[in-house]
Amino acid sequence: MSRKDRIRAQRAAEQLEEPVEEAANLAKHLGLEPYPVNYWIVDYDEMNELIAYGGFQQRYPHWRWGMAYDRQQKQGQFLGGKAFEIVNNDNPAHAFLQESNDLADQKAVITHVEAHADFFSNNEWFGMFADNPDASAMLARHGDTIREYMQDPEIDRAEVEKWIDHVLCLEDNIDQHRPYAPVGDPDVPEIDEDFEDVADQLEDLNVSDEVKKQVFSQEWLDAQSADDDSITFPAEPEKDLLAFLRTHGMQYDEDGEKAVEMEDWQVDVLEILRREAYYFAPQKMTKVMNEGWASFWESKMMGEEGFAGDDEFVLYADHMAKVLGSGGLNPYKLGLELWSYVENTVNRREVAERLLRVEGITWRNFQDVVDFREVQDNLAPEPWLQDIPGSLDEIPADDPRVDTEMLEAAKSGDFDVERYPWKVLTYEGLAERHYSLVKPQYRGFVSRIGQEDLERISRYMFDDSRYESVAEALADVDYARGWDRMREIRESHNDVTFLDEFLSQEFVDDNDYFTYEYTQSTGDYRVTSTDYRDVKKKLMLQFTNFGKPTITVEDGNYQNRNELLLTHQFNGVVLDMEQAKDTLERVFELWGRPVNLLTIDKVFDEHDVEVARRRDREPEPEEVGKRLRYDGEEVTVQEVDWAEVEHLAADDIDYDTKPEEWLA
Question: Where do the SpoVR protein-like N-terminal domain residues begin and end (predicted)?
Fold first, then answer.
C-alpha cells in the first residue's frame, strides 16, 4: 500500500471510530451479546478479493477464487452491484469496510455487523464447530499446507488441483447436524480391500470363456459368490460421505487400472476440505435467520434510533430498499419479515393474555367487547420515552426504564443526547420505546387475532389474577417479551426449524407468498397455491441439506464386489440426472472402484400428458426406481424393482433437524 493510500485509509478509520464504538454500545443496550468485532478498512480490489475468499484474507490456492473474484468485479462494473460489508464467524469477528463507501453506508454496515456477531456468538449451530473459533488462523494454516503440497517437486500441482475439484464437488455431503470431529478409527467392520469375487479375478486374468468352461463349472462359480455371507457396511446409512471416503476410499490408478491407496497428501487435503465444510455449514444452515436478524437490528438502530443522521437517512433508506428489493429468494427480506412476525405474535399473545384476565372479557366475546383503539392508546410509550432530548427534566430518575447515571450525564452535557438518546434508557426502556404493536404498519395486528388462538391462550392461562379494567391490565404488559423470545429462538434454530415453526397462514397472507410449479399440461410455470403448508414445504425444500439432494452411503461392499452404493433420500424432488452422472464420476476418483446410486424418478406417459392437457389438469407421474452406475468408463442407468428403492421414498419430509441430544 502506498503512502497516499495509507493516509486515506487512516482518515477513513478515524472517521469511523465513533460510529464503531457507539454501534457496539447501542447493540448491548438492545440486548445483543456480540463477539468483539475488529473492523478493517479496505479498497475496492481488496473487498472483491475478500468476497471471493469467503470473507478471509488467506485461503488455499485454487482456480475457484479467481473465478469468484472475476464475477464479483464484473458485477460491480457492469451490473451496478455494490459491496457493502463482509464479516466472518470468528472470535473476535473480523469485518471489512470498503473505504469508498459513504458514511451512511458504513454506519449501516457496522450496525448490521454487530447483529451478525451476536448471532455467531449465540446460535448453537455455530457452537457445534467450536465454542471459540479461530477460523482465520485455521484457514491460513490450511492454505499453507496445500500450497506446500503444490510446491513439492514430487507432487504434480495439477493433480492437487484436480483432487481439490473432486472433493469440492462433494463438500455439502457431510452430516451438518453433528459437531465436527476429525476422522478416527471407524466403528465398522474391517474389510479386505483386495477381496474380489472369483468371477472378477478370472476377468482380471483375461481367462477366456472356453477355458472357464473347461476348468470351472457354472454351479461352482455361483457357489463362490456366497452372497448370503457378503460383508456389508456401514451398519446404518452414513450421511458424512466425505468421512466415509476419507476412511475407506482409494484412488484410481489409470495405468494399473485398479484402486490403490491414497497418497498421504490426498488424505490430508480431503480432511482439510472436510473440516472447512463443517466450519461453513452453520452459515449455510442459517442464512435466512442470520441475514434477517442483522437486517432487523440494523433497521432498529439506523432508522428508529436515528443512528443514521438527518443528512444520511435518505441514502440509508435507498440502500436498505435495494437490499430488500433484490429478486429471487431473498434471505434478507424473508428473514426480516419472519423476525418481525415473531416479535408481533409474541407481543400480541402477551397483550391477549392480559386482556383475557379483564372482568367481562372472554375468548368468545373478545372481538366484540374490546375497544382496540383504547388498547393502542394504552400501549403507546409515555411521551417522555418518545421525545427524550426534549423532556430530560421530566424523566423519572428512579424508573427501571432509565439509566440514572447516564441521565445525569445527559443533563450535564457530557454527551450529545440529541444524537444518542438511547444512552439514558435501559433495555426495558428501549423495548417500550420501540414496542412493535403501536407502529402504524402493525396497528391492526392485535384485532386480527383469531378465535382459535384466543381459545388456546385462554386454555393454558394458569394465572388467575384478574383486572378491573383494560388500562389496569395493559399497565402490566411486558414490553420486552417479544425481544426476549427472539433471542431464545436465535440460540437454537436453523432456517429449516425456523420456517417450520413460525411460517403461518397469517404470515403468508400478510406478505403475499405463494408457490408456483412447472405444469406438464401447459408447458410453463403457474401459481399453484397460497396455502401456508405448500409455501412452507416449498421453502423448506430449498434449505433442507443446504437445498441439495440428501445422499447417504448405504453399502461399501455392494453385491460383495467392493463397489460403493449411495442412496438418494427421495422427498418428491427428482435428481438432475446429468449432474448426478457428473458427480458419480467425481466420487469414483475418491473411491477407486465402481460407484452406484439408487434413486427414484418420475416418469410421465405421453398419452396421459396429452389427455391432461385437453382436460386442463396435471397428469399423474409414475415413480420408478433407478440405479446409476459408473465403472470408470461410462455411466449406465438401469430401472430397478420398486422393492430396492421403496425405503428411500418418504411419506412426508422430516424437517426436524435438531441433534438428538438437543431434544432430550
Answer: 13-353, 449-547
User: In terms of pTM, does the model score above 0.85?
Assistant: yes
Contact 648, 570 (CB under 8 A): yes
User: Rounded to whole angstroms, how far apart are CA atoms 462 and 402?
Assistant: 32
313 occurs within a structural domain: yes
Q: List Cβ neighbours of 235 (8 Å cut-off, separation of 6 or more).
A: 188
473 and 526 share a domain? Answer: no
Number of domains in the chain: 3
Are the C-beta atoms of residues 122 and 491 closer than 8 Å to each other? yes
| Residue 142 to residue 136: CA distance in whole angstroms | 10
C-alpha 521/C-alpha 618 separation (Å) is 6
386 lies in the same domain as 482: yes
Angle in degrees, CA 311, 317, 320, rounded to 5: 140
User: For residue 204, is it within any domain?
Assistant: no
- Looking at the fold, whether 350 and 293 belong to one and the same domain comes out as no
CA distance linking residue 121 with residue 550, whole number of Å: 29
Bridge partners for 568 per DSSP: 551
- In this structure, are 43 and 65 located in the same domain? yes
- For the chain, residues with pLDDT lower than 70 are 1-9, 12, 76-84, 131-133, 185-230, 463-464, 521, 651-664
Tell me what pLDDT residue 67 has.
Answer: 87
Evaluate the CA torsion angle 535, 541, 542, 545 in order and state its sign.
Answer: positive
What's the pLDDT score for residue 2? Answer: 63
Angle at 272 between CA 270 and CA 275, to 5 degrees: 110
Question: How long a stretch of residues is the chain?
Answer: 664
Distant-in-sequence, close-in-space partners of 137: CB < 8 Å, separation ≥ 6: none
Burial code (b: 16+ CB inside 10 Å, e: under 16) for 412-436 equals eeeeebeebbbbbbbbbbbbbbbbb
Pairing of strands 93-98, 37-42: parallel
3-class secondary-structure state, position 398? coil
- Rounded CA-CA distance 574/568 in Å is 9
CA dist 237 and 599 (Å) reads 15
* Alpha-carbon span 204 to 112, nearest angstrom: 63
Asked if 523 and 440 sit in the same domain, the reply is no
Q: For residues 457 and 352, is the Cβ–Cβ distance under 8 A?
A: yes
Beta bridge partners of 88: 94
What pLDDT is attached to residue 7?
A: 65
DSSP-derived secondary structure letter, 302: I
Residue 457 lies in a domain: yes
What pLDDT score was predicted for residue 455?
Answer: 94
* Pair 474, 379 in one domain: yes
Domain assignment present for residue 235? The answer is no
Residues 516, 428 share a domain: no
> What's the confidence (pLDDT) of residue 630?
97
